[in-house]
Each structure stands twice: as structure tokens, then as C-alpha cells.
Amino acid sequence: MVKAARSSRWTRLRPALLLCVASAFALASDRARGDDASAARSDYRIKAAYLYYFTTFVDWPSETFSKSGDALVIGVLGEDPFGAILDETLRGKTVKDRPLLVKRFASIKEARDSHILFISSSEQDRLASILKVLEGTTVLTVGEIDHFASRGGEIGFRVEDKKVRFDINVTAVERARLKVSAQLMKLGRIVEGPGHPGG
Amino acid sequence: MALFGNASVRLKLILASILGSGTALLVFGAVITGFDLMALRARLVRRMTVQADIVGANCLSALLFNDQKSAEDTLAALKADPRILGAGLYTADRKLFATYLRDPASGARVMDEALGDAGEGHLLMRDRLRLSRSVLFNGAAAGTVVILCDLREITESLTRDVVVFGSVLLTSLLLALAISSRLQRDITQPILHLAATARRVSQDKDYSVRATGDRRGEIGALVVAFNEMLEEIRQQEAALRGAQDELEQRVVERTAQLQAANGELEAFSYSVSHDLRAPIRHIAGFAEILEADGAGLNEAGRRHLKKIAQAAARMGELIDDLLVFSRMGRSELQAATVSLADLLKEVLKEAQPDVQRPIDWRIDPLPTVHGDAAMLRLVFANLVSNAMKYTAKSEHPRIEIGVDRDEDREVVIRVRDNGVGFDMAYVSKLFGVFQRLHRADEFEGTGIGLANVRRIINRHGGRTWAEGELGHGAAFYFSLPKVKESTT
User: Fold this and answer.
1) Would you call A168 an interface residue with chain B, using a CB distance cutoff of 8 Å?
2) Contact A16 B137 (CB under 8 A)
3) 0.90 cut: is pTM over it?
4) Which residue of B has its CA nearest to A11?
């Protein structure tokens, strides 16, 4: 009995464990300061995991899934900084029985049906127009551009004490009709900013 | 019952009821307390599990997003429950991620840096409970919450239980003591009364007392049976006493009758003997005259006449002896202190000149007794003359006279010879009147000597008996009581 319970727990544990091993690895390599590239890579590993976690702490209106065929679409707009990491992180994962689908977009027009859209730093200059296009959609915009959240994005990554933290623009989230869990809210730094670009 | 030794029924009953109720209460209390303890523990474990699950769920995001401060803030919510001493949040690789300590000032390291075992569950220690719950993320464990909970509440509750139970036990035992000491009276009172009655009966032999008390129930039956037995004993005793009285009365009557008959017989034999003397004298006298004359008698006639004279003389002797014997029974005992040694000396002095043969006399010192000197002298005279007579044909005659045994109640004198003796088959005839075991022409005598001895000794309250063997001598014994007693 105990053995069976334990083994079943182990099978359940395995993905999380992999994740943690990954983050531990990331942390360990983070300490090796000499290698900036590997530090950056481990940051992206963490950010990729965070993108996955966001899917569990945010509720999208149910009609958004009918367009994507039940899958939860995580999009990357612009130059992809993750490389294979994002696909590796999300491979085989589901959120509330929905498969996760990674899509890469070159143009914002195509990205409107995403649930989460990571806006690459390469789009820094076009951010305002991108956000304008997304106005009225239920896309959770995430980015690592400086002051991403206060500039109208919804969640912006930043690094603090060598840890990846994030800001949340509550106004923008509310305007996108997304329900962000209190658990997520308490972790993020709440920033004030325009609910929409050009404000 | 060995438990109580020989305590009284009263004490046994009280002890039994108190022990019984005490044991029942103790078992009851132990079971209740045990169940209470288990229930309290189970409830605490359940509550702590819920707490751990809530905290774990609230810590999930902090765990996922690696936010230690947030996790600690969430854990700190546990301070609402004063029983929780501390809590720890461990990552999936079992490293301590965040802690909460109720009393950080104590400095005790409550949470281990690494989680010991991988499983969920709880561990009950003497004073604390350690409970681990997995924090689930999408069906998999993202970490573990460990809560340390103080068991003081349970201990206190248990102590309270024990105190309450103890006082209840004490109170109920006191109540039981009061009740049982009151109730036992109904049972023990009749028993004690019965025992006292039985003791009185056995001590005083008074069978007329009766046990009283309630006639219902087992003890009542005992009382009734006891009384019936007493009545039975009383009746039997009365019957026995009646029978005894009757017997005694009958003995007295018979004795009187016998004495009267005996007296009559003796008087008769005395008068007969006395009256027979005169005709015998005449026969003897005229036979002498005829013999002296010798007139007209031939040789045969003279021989017949001589036989008549001899027979008459012998009959005279017999009658004289009978008269002596009869006198022995009728004359008063002249009781005084008598020295048997002196008596024997006199008897021997008279007997000695008759003897030509040397007899080996062996005479022990003899005691002083209480009796009739003349009669006791006759006893010795008879026994000594018997002994001399029946040793007459012995080559080395020997006669021993001594004390066979000297006891508290009586002294036994023995006269023994090495003469012809007698056959023990006829010992019963030895002391009879005119009973002879030997022919008259063998040994002279009328055969009344030993009868006289027995009569005299009997009148002194003693006994006579003899032992002997043909050809190996005889021993005659007589006993005299030491106690002075009035004899008939």
C-alpha cells in the first residue's frame, strides 16, 4: 500500500522535480559568475518556467479557447531569446487538461489569438503600437523590456538580487478581462501605468 | 477469599463491593481516557492536516516563483494557532525553503535543513506532533509543508480527564463504601448473630437457645436449619440423659436386688453350714464310740466305720471352711494402716516350723497399705501355704514375694513359686469356692483358700489374678488401691 502510494507520488513528482533540478542547475550556474552566457541561459530557463506557471494562476475567458482549439497558446513575438528552452520546458505539460502550444510570431497581427504573448526585447521600439493592436484582446502580455509593465504591458520581468522577479500592471490586466490569482498578485510588484498605450 | 485472610464477613463484603466497583470504574475510566486520547490526537492531526494543506496551497506560488519572503509571510499566518510551534516549507528536492517559528527567541533549531523522508504523514512524539503534507502543483508535489504542533493541549486535556476521573473514582468509592457498609448490615447482621449463637451453644452446651432473625432468603434458611438442628440436638440430649438416668436407676435397683439376694444366700449358706455342723458331730462322735467298742463288727464293718469317721471329719472341715468364707463376706472391715512386710513376717513365722525342706525365700520390701490387718494376713497365709504346698514335690523349691508394680492408683503384690503350676485353660476356675485343679490325695486342702483371697481383696477394692504353666510354677497377683475408700 505504502509502496504503491509512494511510487504513484513519485510519478506525479517527476515533472516538478525535473523543473526543480533545472532551476537548481540554473541557480548553481548562476553562481558561476564568469559565464554571462550561461547565466543568461539559466535566466531564460526560469523565465520559461514562469511563463508556464503563469498559465495556472491566470484565468482566461472560456471563449478564448474555442479559437485555439482548446490549446493554450504561448506566443513569442519578435526575436526568440529562449531558443529550444521554452519548448523543452513546456513539452508534455498541460494546464487544466489543456495542451500548451508554443507559437512564434513575426507580426503582431498573427499574435492576437495567443493567451500569453512574450514580447521580445527586439520589439522594444514598437511596443506602443503592439500594445495598441492587442487592445481589446485577452492576451496576457509578458516582456523583459525595461519598465514593461509601467509602459502598458501586463507582466514585466526584472532581475533583482540575481533573482527573476516581475511587475504586474493591474490596470492592464483588468482591461484584458483576465483574472490573476491573488497568489500571483502577492508575488509581483504592483505598478501603476497606462492601461493602454498612448495614454 | 484467601485475598482477605480471616477478616470478618463484614469486612469481606465491604472490600468485595469496593474492589468490584473500583475495578469497574477504573476500567471504564481507562477506556474512556484512552478513547478520548485517541480522539483528541486524531482530531488534532486532522486539523493540522487542514492547516498544512491551506498553508501549502497558499505557498504554492511562492514556491514556484522562488519567493522566500512571500512564503515566510504565508507561513506566518500559522501564528493564529497557538498550538503550532513552527512550520517549514521544503522544496521538491527537500531543501528548507522557508520557516516559521512561533518563538524565534528560543533559538532552537526547530526545522531541519533537509527534509528527512519523502512521504506525507504524521509522527506523534511525547510532547509534539510533526506533520508533513505535500504541496501539489498540477497533481505533482512541488514541495512539502511540515508543521510542528505542541501536544500540551492534549496532555492538559488528558491531565484534566485523569483528575476528574480520579475525583469521580474517589467520590464513587466513598459512596460505594457508605452504601455497602449500610447494605452489608442486612447480610452480615444475621450471619454474625448466627455465629454468636453457635459460639454460645458450643461454649455453654446450652441447646435451648435459638437464633433469631429474618426467616426469608438463604440466611433465613440457615437460621431455620440451625434452629432445627439445635432442637434435634436438644431432644436427643434429653433422650440420652433420660436413658442414662433410667439406666443408673436400673443399676441401683439391680444392685440393691443383687445385694439382697446375695445377703439372703449368704445367710442361708451360713445357717445351713451352722446347722449341718451338729449332725456331722453326732455322726463323727458315734462313729468314734462304735470304733472304740468294736462290738460285733467284723473286719469289713470296722473298715466301713473308719471310712464314715473320715468322711464325717472331712465334711466338718468343709463346713468350717464354708463358715469362715461366709464370715469373710459378712464381717465388717476393720480398716487401718497395715504394714504388709510385718504381716508377711508373722505369717512366715507360723508357716516355717511346718517345713523340713529348705525353701529358697526371696522376699522384697513390701509397702504399707490401708486395709483390714486380719483379713490381709489371711490372704498372705493362703498364698504362702499354697506356694509351699505346691512346691512340696520340687527339688529346689523357691518362693518369691514382692511388689509387681507400684502405681499412682494401686500397688500390685506378687507371690510366685516354682511348683507344679497349673494349666492356664483353667485359670478362671482357680478362685472359685471348692475348686481344685489337683486331686485331694495329691495335695491336701478343701479348695476354699483362693476363694477367700479373692473375696478379701474384692472387699478392699482390689483385683486378683494368676499366671501359671504346668510344671513351671505359678504366680498369684493381688492389687490394693492406694486411695482410702470406704468399702462395703
Assistant:
1) no
2) yes
3) no
4) B140
